[in-house]
Amino acid sequence: MADLTTLTWRVADGVGFVNLDRPERHNAFDQTMCEELSALWRRLRTDDSVRAVVLGAEGGKAFCTGIDRDFVPSEGGAEYTFSPYTYDDPGTLLGPKSNELWKPVIAAVDGLACGGAFYLLGEVDFIIATEASRFFDPHVTYGMPAVYEPLLMLHRGMPFGEVLRMTLLGNHERMTARRAEEIGLVSEVVTDADALVEAATWAAGAIASAPSSAVQATLRTLWAGRELSRQQALDLGGTFLHLGMSEEALAEGQKVFERGRIEPRER
């Protein structure tokens, strides 16, 4: 996808690196970014050269500040209108899970992540952030109901009271990366942008070293399990177990075993 205008994209050693690339707008999304991200996620579903993805952003000041206030649907694109019966939400195009990508996506956050950024953070598999990162949701401050973004964060396990506090306080408070780590929103906090790239690349590379079918089946099972009862999840697990198991994957795993003991890092 050499014609991307709002994203940068490269692949190395089984890891895809996607960066939001509108730093002059603090990486706020417009319709073009929505369409480009959706197309990229869908392309990656069948790209065997990519086993894991790191999602970051250019500029260093903001990961994403939500929807661009100058958002205007492109000619021939979707019309976004307010109706009590239906609403075409542009944010539904942004996340990997909404586009049926079941390869692991790690968010590498540096700077501000607010508002519509939670469409992305609500659908990644875990988040690594720099100490300078800050999280908040300004919707209600500006007279807009906060609905989809906090629901996504609630569903991924962010504590109910923390979701409410962040959402209701709006622009009056920003959650630090350290506090986000304490409540489980962020899995690791690093010192700076260089350390962020190193940590996210290491984690994605470790995941990419495993057989992809086993990883994808595991990922799909656990995300589905969040929406099901315990017994339903266990029953469905058997289906994904058989779908993700293959002679090729087991042979690949045996080669990992034969190479010797992996030296794990601690955190």
Automatic annotation (TrEMBL):
Domain of life: Bacteria
Organism of this sequence: Iamia majanohamensis
GO biological process, one term: fatty acid beta-oxidation
Name this protein carries in UniProt: Enoyl-CoA hydratase/isomerase family protein
PANTHER family for this protein: ENOYL-COA HYDRATASE, MITOCHONDRIAL, ENOYL-COA HYDRATASE-RELATED
Molecular-function GO term, any one: catalytic activity
